[in-house]
Amino acid sequence: MNLATTSLNHTPVLNTLDLHDPDSQETAGLRASYERFDAVVLEALGAEARGQLQTAAINASVAASVAAHLHCGIFASSRLEELLNSIGRRITRRTATTPAKRSPTAVKRVLHVLTHAYPVGGVTKMLGLWLRLDGERQNSIVLTQHRGSVPAALRSAARASGAQIHRLNMQAGDCFAWAQRLREIAADYDAVVLHIHCEDIVPLLAFADPVGRPPVLLLNHADHLFWLGTSISDVVINLREAAQDISIQRRFTEPQRNVIIPTLVERAQRTLSRHEAKRAIGIDPNQTMLLSVARKVKFDAHGGVNYADIVAPVLAQRPEAILVVVGAGDMPEWRSTTEALGGRIVSVEETPDITPYLEAADIYVDSYPFVSSTSMMEAANYGMPLLTLFVAPQSARIVGINHVGLVGTALQATSIEAYRELLLRLIAESDFRTTTGAASTDAVRRDHTPPGWFGFLDDAYVRALNLPRLDWSQQAPHAAPEAPQFGEPDCRHQAMFGSGFGLVEMKKGCVGLLPFRQRVDFWRQIGREHGFRRPTEAASYLLPEWLKRTIKDRKHG
């Protein structure tokens, strides 16, 4: 493979989806996934009818996990929301009076609720910044199902801001007990912000009854996935317009309960010049460094398009250029291309600190096929021009970059040919790099960093205080049962974002959340499905989650 002679016209062919073909592979896949989802929903509804509320709630979580991992043409489920809301009202106690610590007219104390805090990723990073920069308010954290050590950066941010960190699943009890505890903790706060996983049922149970609870705002960080939470969200915080459209059209949320807040990123303070930073990470200062930062899954090939092959012809024409990919690690499918280029595609593992790479890079090239918006905003902070590839129709813009400060400033190519032409120009023309990068920097710093970002946040809090608490018992009769859709963006969703995570594995993750009798029943069901690889593994799943976390994680705090 001689890349030096590769023509720009030699382009991978993207799969074309026939949206009007009811027998297409994509439509068949959506139907099959919906049937799997629906079967688990019916299990949950059946358990509720038999009075087995814990089993019903856990099956609701499993159903949500199915829909999040295997897209089935829906982004929300009115049936699951109604089920969990009904259960939550029965198992949690109302707050008799408004606690003295809570302000009825302003948001001064905020409780942030996470399912799990990952050491790498935009959600944890944004929350850490939020804690450190929001000095006007008292912020605290509840982790509902965290496993392992709390990331050092989040613990440091919490300490610096005076925030408490509560870990529910280290307290004796099941998911119902944790829901009640979450409601009790939240009673002292003026607002709750949810940064939760798509299938986390604990907050839905805790805040089902609107009487006596503070307003709840849900951060829609997984805007391209199915999630639970519509029934308790007084306000949905969307990070971009495409997400807001889906929230209103596909998640049963009223328009007045939707706001847009840009992703919060840190304003960069450069410590090294580009030349110095390149030397520090082993790059020739005279090379033009292209950078992409994202988790490995965001670079998985889709539709016959390999990320390395998209960029390779440009690198072949411009021998002074090098591409560094942070987060993908070893990519065997890139190996032959990288070797043909003399090693000028460098892929490294995930790292919590990407600053050295941001300081060194000249051009930021977005991940593909899955975009990485937070990394683009961080790159803009360093004056880099931004380039992304979007080949889908506008009706599928949820799969592309359309975030507040990036609209109109990031360069967006709508074909591989246009992408390569723009990249060639960015490498060749330093003035073009400078002016394009400056536009992105100005926009991101205006909207995505303080003080401008706090204007969006303050407006969201005011909206949450002024709107009546969402009462799903009144809303549910007006929410039609979910039904799968087969057009855009659903038809391309599974191929881009889906996983092979199996139903049995989803169930195994929930066993420890149940009380003993229901836990044994659920455990036996998994055994009948051959879900355990060995007897010792099976035995470990009989332990309650709180006990396992206490044994394994106590030293982490």
Keywords:
single chain; 557 residues; alpha/beta; seven-stranded parallel sheet; six-stranded parallel sheet; 13 strands; disordered N terminus
Reconstruct the topology from this structure.
Elements: H1 25-49, H2 53-69, H3 78-91, E1 109-114, H4 122-133, E2 138-143, H5 152-161, E3 165-167, H6 175-186, E4 191-195, H7 202-206, E5 216-219, E6 235-238, H8 241-250, E7 258-260, H9 274-280, E8 288-293, H10 307-317, E9 321-326, H11 335-340, E10 345-348, H12 355-360, E11 363-365, H13 373-380, E12 386-389, E13 411-413, H14 416-428, H15 430-447, H16 452-466, H17 472-475, H18 490-497, H19 503-508, H20 516-528, H21 535-540, H22 545-553
Parallel strand pairs: 1-2, 1-4, 2-3, 4-5, 5-6, 6-7, 8-9, 8-11, 9-10, 11-12, 12-13
Helix pairs in contact: 1-2, 1-3, 1-18, 2-3, 4-5, 10-14
Describe the structure concisely.
The protein has about 550 residues and is of the alpha/beta class.
